[in-house]
Design a protein that fits this description.
Layout (H helix, E strand, L loop, with lengths): L6 H5 L5 H24 L1 H8 L3 H5 L2 H19 L3 H31 L4 H6 L1 H6 L31 H16 L6 H20 L13 H16 L8 H14 L10 H12 L15 H18 L6 H28 L2 H14 L41
C-alpha cells in the first residue's frame, strides 16, 4: 500500500529545484525591495512597508531563514563530526563574503569616495569595514555614497549576518548536547526562543516589527522552525490545502505584533512545501547557485548604479540595471570562489571519517555517540553546495 506523501517522502528524491527557484526568487525580491529605498529614500520604504504590499515584503526574510533552517538541518544530520558541520558552514559563507568585503573596501571605495586616497586608506571606517568578515557589521566606508538617498551605507544587506551566526550557534549547541537529530529538542528550542522574545515583548523591552523589516532575533525563530519541520518531515503531510492555509495565516500574522511570534511554523511549512516541489530546471539560470552572490553584491551595486547613472533614478530602470550587474557578479562569485572552494568539503569529510574511526568499535576507544551512520545521498545530492539538497534519511518508523 502506498503511504501518503509527507515532506520527508518528497525530500527522498534529492531533487531541490523548488528550493533553487525559491532562493533565487527571494534574493531577487530583496533586490527589488531595496531599489525602492535606494532610489526614493527610507521614507518611501516605510510607506511601502505600511501598505498591503508590506505583508508580502515582510515575508521575504522569514522565508529565507526558514528555508535555510530546513536545508542546514539536513547538513547537520549528514555531518559526521561538529568540525565537519561547522567547516561546511564556513566554506559556504565566509570566502565569498570576504571577497565581497575586500572588493568593496579596496576597489569600490577608492573609486566612489569623496575623500583623497590617503585619507580614505587611513580612516578608521576603512579598517573597521573588514570586521564584516567575522560578523561584526560596519556599513560605512569613508566618504562613500554620501549624497545617495540612503547615505553612507555601502552594504545594508549585511545586517542579517550576525543573526545567521546565531542560528548556527544554536545548531552547534544541539550537537554539543547530543541532540542534533532530535525533533523534540528542536521544537523545545523554538518554544524557548519564542517564549523569551514574548516575555521581553510583554516587558516592553522588545519590538518584533520594525518600520521596514522584522527584528533580527525573530528571524532566528523562523530558522528554528525550519529545523523543526526537517526533523519531523516524515510526520508532516505535504498537502496543497495545508500550504494555502499556512501561507494565508502567515500573511495575516506577519504584521501583527500580538500574533507574529506564533507565525514561524506556518511560514516554515509554506516555505518547505514550495521548496519540495520539483519544477523543471532551466539550465542557463541554474548552472549554479547564484542566490548568495546576489545577496552579497546587490546593495553596493545598487548604490553605485544610483550614484553613477542619472538615468537610473526611477524604480524600474534602477532595478533592471542593478539586477543585470548583480547577476554578473553573482555568477563570478559562484564559478570562481564559491564552487571551487566547496570542493574542499571532501577534505573535511575525510578528516571527519578519521575522527569518527577513532571512536568506532575495535579502535580501542569507546564508541562515540556523536557519530551517525553514513547515509546515502539522493541522485541530485552530490553537488558542490552542501545545502543544495535534502538527505533522504529514512526514519525507523513511518506512518
Amino acid at each position: 500500500m502506498r503511504t501518503r506523501d509527507t515532506l520527508g517522502s518528497l525530500a527522498e528524491s534529492g531533487n531541490t529545484s523548488g528550493f533553487d527557484y525559491l532562493r533565487l526568487f527571494l534574493s531577487i525580491s530583496v533586490l527589488a525591495w531595496h531599489s525602492a529605498g535606494i532610489v526614493y529614500g527610507r521614507d518611501q520604504s516605510f510607506f511601502l512597508a505600511g501598505s498591503p504590499l508590506g505583508h508580502l515584503t515582510f515575508l521575504i526574510l522569514p522565508m529565507f531563514f526558514a528555508l535555510s533552517g530546513f536545508l542546514v538541518a539536513s547538513s547537520l544530520v549528514r555531518s559526521r563530526t561538529l568540525i565537519e558541520f561547522l567547516g561546511l558552514r564556513i566554506l559556504r559563507l565566509v570566502p565569498a563574503l570576504a571577497v565581497e568585503i575586500c572588493l568593496s573596501a579596496l576597489v569600490l571605495g577608492p573609486i566612489m569616495t569623496s575623500f583623497n586616497i590617503q585619507s580614505y586608506f587611513t580612516d578608521y571606517e576603512f579598517i573597521s569595514y573588514f570586521l564584516n568578515i567575522v560578523g561584526l557589521i560596519h556599513f560605512q566606508l569613508p566618504g562613500v555614497f554620501l549624497s545617495n538617498p540612503i547615505p553612507s551605507i555601502v552594504n545594508g544587506s549585511l545586517w542579517t549576518v550576525p543573526f545567521e551566526l546565531e542560528c548556527y550557534i544554536a545548531l552547534a549547541a544541539l550537537w554539543v548536547l547530543r541532540l542534533r537529530g532530535s525533533g523534540p529538542a528542536a521544537l523545545v528550542a523554538l518554544v524557548l526562543w519564542s517564549g523569551l522574545l514574548g516575555t521581553r515583548l510583554l516587558m516592553g523591552a522588545y519590538e518584533p516589527i520594525g518600520p521596514d523589516a522584522l527584528n533580527g532575533r525573530l528571524l532566528v525563530a523562523y530558522f528554528l522552525a525550519g529545523v523543526c519541520l526537517y526533523q519531523y518531515r516524515y510526520r508532516i503531510p505535504s498537502d496543497v490545502r495545508l500550504f494555502v492555509v499556512a501561507f494565508a495565516v502567515s500573511l495575516v500574522m506577519i504584521k501583527s505584533k500580538s500574533a507574529i511570534l506564533l507565525s514561524p511554523l506556518f511560514v516554515a511549512y509554506a516555505t518547505a512545501y514550495v521548496g519540495l516541489l520539483r519544477p523543471k530546471k532551466l539550465p542557463l539560470i541554474f548552472s549554479g547557485d547564484y542566490s548568495y552572490g546576489i545577496y552579497l553584491y546587490a546593495f553596493p551595486i545598487q548604490q553605485t548604479v544610483y550614484a553613477l547613472v542619472p538615468q537610473s533614478h526611477g524604480w524600474v530602470p534602477h532595478f533592471l540595471l542593478s539586477l543585470a550587474a548583480t547577476a554578473a557578479l553573482a555568477a563570478f562569485s559562484w564559478h570562481t570562489i564559491e564552487k571551487p572552494l566547496l570542493r574542499l568539503k571532501r577534505h573535511l569529510r575525510f578528516e571527519s571519517d578519521v575522527i569518527a574511526a577513532e571512536f568506532s568499535p575495535g579502535s580501542g576507544h569507546k564508541t562515540s555517540r556523536w557519530r551517525l551512520p553514513k547515509v546515502g545521498l539522493g541522485r541530485h545530492n552530490d553537488v558542490s553546495d552542501p545545502d543544495a539538497a535534502v538527505a533522504p534519511e529514512r526514519p525507523r518508523h513511518r506512518t
